[in-house]
Each structure stands twice: as structure tokens, then as C-alpha cells.
Amino acid sequence: xxxxxxxxxxxxxxxxxxxxxxxxxxxxxxxxxxxxxxxxxxxxxxxxxxxxxxxxxxxxxxxxxxxxxxxxxxxxxxxxxxxxxxxxxxxxxxxxxxxxxxxxxxxxxxxxxxxxxxxxxxxxxxxxxxxxxxxxxxxxxxxxxxxxxxxxxxxxxxxxxxxxxxxxxxxxxxxxxxxxxxxxxxxxxxxxxxxxxxxxxxxxxxxxxxxxxxx
Length: 215
Known about the structure:
Oligomer: single chain
Low-confidence stretches: 1-16, 26-44
Structural class: alpha/beta
Radius of gyration: 17 Å
Largest sheet: 5 strands, mixed
């Protein structure tokens, strides 16, 4: 009975904060929530991506772990819009890059994307950028690629999104066990702090970004 209760609690925790990472598969996987259901769920409501100052202040602040800083990420990646980009060129575009790893099947990922889209706009002139990495899409022409494009348009998360190609899985996602997972990197592609697992609000992310930009 105790084992059953613990199992139920673990499932609920993942549902609220994140989902198990799911890399693209050669054969069609058997999943509990197909990507198509994520798009067609008519009762699913996105956040507005906007919060008052009071609402922002009411959310807990992230305790960033700077002991986890230093790892460098080097790779070449394809984007959802068909471009090929080198990581050095990508990260050189900002003092701080927020690399948000998400999946088309992941409700917590989708729930925070309107906030991330708004942050991308609000911090456009702050030497900061957001980049998405879609853990279950390896081709823009795949069914999940089409789903991702619809979700990005619907949530307003219209920043650059990378695909989970073999090189990206090997060099970026090798130790990612759940999504969303967020990495903060400097202009050389080095981690500024340990990875953040789970979704967060606009206010929580904004406070973390302000802290990193001030360093």
C-alpha cells in the first residue's frame, strides 16, 4: 500500500512540474498522451504571458546553483524553420541565453511558453535571448514538427527552436531526464548555473534572468 501511495505522489509531482524527456524515436512509440491530443484539447487555456508587478513579486525566486557552472556546450543544430546554426554563433548573440528544452506532449512545458514568449519580447534589448529545444522533434517535416509549429504559434513562443537531432541529443540532452529543463549559458556556451528542472512563472524566470544579467 505504501509503494502504491508513493507511486501516485510521484506521478502527480511530474504532472505539475514536468514530464519525462522523450527523444525522437525511429519506430512510433506507445505513449499515454499522444502529441495530437495536446493540440486538440479545446479546454486547455494558455496563460496570458503578462503579469502585474504584484503577481511577479508573489512567486518564489529560484535559488540558482552556481556550483554547477562551467560546462561548455558545442554543437551544430537544425532549427524548426529549416536553418542550420552553429552553437558558437548562436550563443555569441547574447550575454545570457536561456535554453528551454521542451516537448510537444508536455503540458507543463506548454503552460509556461506564453510567459517565455513575453519574456523574449520584454528582454529583447537586454543582451538576452531565449532558445527552445524540442526534445521529441528531429525533423521540421514530421508530424510532431507540424504539431510543434502549431503550439508555438498558439502560445506566442516565437523565438528560435532547435530540433533534437543526433548531435544535439549527444551534446546537449545526454543528461536531461525530464522536461521542461532550462539551461542558462553565457556568450561562449558555458553554463552559468546548474540546470533548472520544471516549469516556472514569468516572475520567477524574470528574477533569475535579472540576477544572471547583473553578474
